């Protein structure tokens, strides 16, 4: 068994090597290139194992990767840093003006998408003559409905999107995880039979405590960090304060059963706006934002590579491939209906950029959070089909939608009047 240091060394070396190869040869967007290369390497190793049964390369690498708990690495490791880094660059004034849109997409959109996906998957499995409980279809809908903030923000770096539309996409992605995790928790307890005492008041309490409590916690810890930064002008200390803010806020939120993602996003928006304008000198701002940009780039690269390499560990059952083929168009259609419904509802009070519906639909990228939630399912026969469907959707949205989003933007949002 590899030590933690050896495991991290190997992962960082693989990330750097694949990043260099992608830059030199494939020239795909950085993180998509890493995912493609990781997936290609995984499939190549599986092929080698099939052709040369006496080789031990596959087994050695798979055993090493199994030492990484993907759920813990993402949900209780990378996610806090990646969300904070993304939130730092959110313009608070623009976010305020688009608050109703972001709120509708992150709540109504996620709930509607969850229901549509669950219903479609359940009907599809029934038509195929496969027993798949509707409660587990709801679990899949809840974990795949939210857009992934890490994947969305990464995709937006390589696409020229109008500012209003960019605010809608990034704001939704940053804030929909709190609602999605609550929905996932509720549907999972219903599916496992431990949610029999659930009622409307209990659900509302979960939403208020997790989402609302997380937002309040982020405001409090973010304000404390802002005041500490304002009291001095030393970039090294202020970088340390930002690190302490992220880790302490996320840990406190988990301990208090609040939404860690929402808490660090709120704290990040506060520091990135009020903190940057009133609590940092130009030199400090350059170092703090530069540091978090590097953290974002490095962790993004590692995460996307891990998604590609995870095939080595999962070894999907081929008999569930059809579930993935069913899930991909189903998720796209559900995303379209959820976006169109939200936009239509708000169109009387809010203005929308040209091409909002097609861009938001095709820009609904899923990523590591959905995979992590699917991997957290244990002790159920529904795990295998849900995992196959989740991985198929994640790969399709990141690779296909991520690589073609720029074309959709140019043809719809940026086309000549």
From TrEMBL:
Protein source organism: Ancylobacter mangrovi
Family, similarity comment: Belongs to the monovalent cation:proton antiporter 1 (CPA1) transporter (TC 2.A.36) family.
Membrane topology annotation: Multi-pass membrane protein
A GO BP entry: regulation of intracellular pH
Keyword Transport (UniProt): yes
TM spans (from-to): 6-22, 34-53, 73-92, 99-123, 129-153, 174-191, 203-226, 259-276, 288-314, 320-347, 359-378, 384-405
Domain Cation/H+ exchanger transmembrane intervals: 15-410
Main location: membrane
GO cellular component, one term: plasma membrane
Keywords carried by this UniProt record: Antiport, Cell membrane, Ion transport, Membrane, Sodium, Sodium transport, Transmembrane, Transmembrane helix, Transport
Gene Ontology molecular function: any one: sodium:proton antiporter activity
Locations listed in the record: Cell membrane
Pfam families recorded: Na_H_Exchanger
Protein's UniProt name: Sodium:proton antiporter
Keyword Cell membrane part of the UniProt annotation: yes
